[in-house]
UniProtKB/TrEMBL annotation:
<protein>
    <recommendedName>
        <fullName>Glucose-1-phosphate adenylyltransferase</fullName>
        <ecNumber>2.7.7.27</ecNumber>
    </recommendedName>
</protein>
<feature type="site" description="Could play a key role in the communication between the regulatory and the substrate sites">
    <location>
        <position position="98"/>
    </location>
</feature>
<dbReference type="InterPro" id="IPR011004">
    <property type="entry name" value="Trimer_LpxA-like_sf"/>
</dbReference>
<keyword id="KW-0320">Glycogen biosynthesis</keyword>
<keyword id="KW-0548">Nucleotidyltransferase</keyword>
<feature type="site" description="Could play a key role in the communication between the regulatory and the substrate sites">
    <location>
        <position position="59"/>
    </location>
</feature>
<comment type="function">
    <text>Involved in the biosynthesis of ADP-glucose, a building block required for the elongation reactions to produce glycogen. Catalyzes the reaction between ATP and alpha-D-glucose 1-phosphate (G1P) to produce pyrophosphate and ADP-Glc.</text>
</comment>
<keyword id="KW-0808">Transferase</keyword>
<keyword id="KW-0119">Carbohydrate metabolism</keyword>
<dbReference type="InterPro" id="IPR011831">
    <property type="entry name" value="ADP-Glc_PPase"/>
</dbReference>
<dbReference type="InterPro" id="IPR005835">
    <property type="entry name" value="NTP_transferase_dom"/>
</dbReference>
<feature type="binding site">
    <location>
        <position position="99"/>
    </location>
    <ligand>
        <name>alpha-D-glucose 1-phosphate</name>
    </ligand>
</feature>
<feature type="binding site">
    <location>
        <begin position="179"/>
        <end position="180"/>
    </location>
    <ligand>
        <name>alpha-D-glucose 1-phosphate</name>
    </ligand>
</feature>
<dbReference type="GO" id="GO:0005524">
    <property type="term" value="F:ATP binding"/>
</dbReference>
<dbReference type="Pfam" id="PF00483">
    <property type="entry name" value="NTP_transferase"/>
</dbReference>
<feature type="domain" description="Nucleotidyl transferase">
    <location>
        <begin position="7"/>
        <end position="259"/>
    </location>
</feature>
<dbReference type="InterPro" id="IPR023049">
    <property type="entry name" value="GlgC_bac"/>
</dbReference>
Length: 402
């Protein structure tokens, strides 16, 4: 059962800044890029990097996520020894606890990790869009003789104060850590992806749990404690595509970037680093004789009879004759009826946009934002939804929602 490295994937995030999209859905289960969910990216990275044992720590609204992961077969993680394991909080002899923080979540699963007696543990986030070879990261960790390594990206100095920052010397050894500082000393932003030597991580998790003042968090507690003790800590520079899709605008932007792989850096058509997902089981898409489609992603089961431009359509979307979809992310099962205009927005799963309704209408004098229609919402015939609106409940015929 012994493994050199196993992955622990933090997938319990509520994703509160995605509002209507995550009311009944864990953030890692949010659809992305036409045929994927966010969690497909770290799972695919694992198997492409040769990591075949993954613990997935779930908590908030796990039903859809658990169902989607299943036995791990789409990612070749249905293994007899290893594979994928969903690890929710559970009742123990000492009582029952929710995961109180990122470090506590790993602490509560020490027994799972010890089953495989790994030398290294990689901690991953289940709510980022990133294509990364973790085997390169592990090789860096070994060559440096590190006890802890963190993947970092250079960000613009003007934005550095939004991130946890690593200050490192010319050999990439970390000398200081700043959590969202007002006066940044570095622009090396932590990606929230860590490699630990397991013996070191285990020691610090236990000590952290015994500290009643701790927030049980990697950024606020574990990393500062490693620095305090002078541990060998290194920053691994990552230069590929990485995006935290934690807001409506960033989720919309990342989906739009899928349509321009040459300039955006995210190529879902890359045969050498495939992103795997669960098959929808739907038939092929059908394009009507009068349909117009320009620079768009059209997925399984779609029926297109209207106009679609620069948009991402997930499985089973129907666009009726006379409907216009532009600069939009339309999630699975949504129906857009005749004459409707849908633009610069995200439409949740199984929504219905009524005849001649208008989504994403820009109000005079306001900045253009990303309109959001929640899953299962019905927007009535002739209704209008403004460009910054967040709609969670049905909109009546002819009503305006700003």
């Amino acid at each position: 059962m012994e493994k050199e490295i196993i992955a622990m994937l933090l997938a319990g995030g509520q994703g509160s800044r995605l509002y209507a999209l995550t009311q009944k859905l864990a953030k890692p289960a949010v659809p992305f890029g036409g045929k994927y969910r966010i969690i497909d990216f770290p799972l695919s990275n694992c198997i492409n990097s040769g990591i075949d044992t993954v613990g997935i720590l779930t908590q908030y609204q796990p039903l859809v996520l658990n169902e989607y992961i299943g036995n791990g077969q789409p990612w070749d993680l249905d293994r007899l020894h290893g594979g994928v394991h969903v690890l929710p909080p559970y009742q123990k002899a000492s009582g029952s606890d929710w995961y109180k923080g990122t470090a506590n979540a790993i602490y509560q699963n020490i027994a799972f990790i010890e089953r495989y007696n790994p030398k290294y543990v990689i901690i991953l986030s289940g709510d980022q869009i990133c294509k990364q070879d973790y085997s390169d990261f592990l090789e860096f960790h070994k060559q440096k003789g590190a006890e802890f390594s963190v993947a970092v990206m250079e960000v613009p100095w003007a934005e550095a104060s939004r991130f946890g920052l690593m200050v490192a010397d010319e050999n990439d050894k970390i000398t200081e850590f700043q959590e969202k500082p007002a006066n940044p000393k570095s622009n090396l932003a932590s990606m929230g992806i860590y490699i630990f030597n397991w013996d070191v991580l285990r020691k610090y998790l236990i000590e952290d749990e015994e500290d009643p003042e701790s927030e049980n968090d990697f950024g606020n507690n574990i990393i500062p404690n490693l620095l305090r003790d002078g541990r060998d800590m290194y920053a691994y520079h990552f230069s590929g595509y990485w995006k935290d899709v934690g807001t409506i605008s960033s989720l919309w932007e990342a989906n739009m970037e899928v349509l321009d792989p040459k300039n955006s850096g995210i190529d879902l058509f890359d045969e050498d680093w495939k992103i795997y997902s669960r098959n929808s089981g739907m038939t092929g898409h059908k394009i009507g004789s009068d349909a117009v489609i320009k620079n768009s992603m059209i997925t399984d089961g779609c029926r297109i009879d209207g106009e679609v431009e620069h948009s991402v359509l997930f499985a089973g979307v129907k666009v009726a004759p006379g409907a216009v979809v532009k600069d939009a992310v339309v999630m699975g099962g949504t129906v857009i009826k005749p004459g409707a205009v849908v633009e610069h927005c995200i439409i949740g799963e199984n929504a219905v946009i009524g005849e001649n309704a208008k989504i994403g209408v820009e109000k005079e004098g306001e900045d253009k934002g990303v309109a959001t229609i929640g899953p299962g919402v019905y927007v009535g015939d002739g209704a209008t939804v403004g460009s910054n609106a967040m709609v969670r409940e049905n909109v009546k015929d002819g009503e305006e929602e700003w």
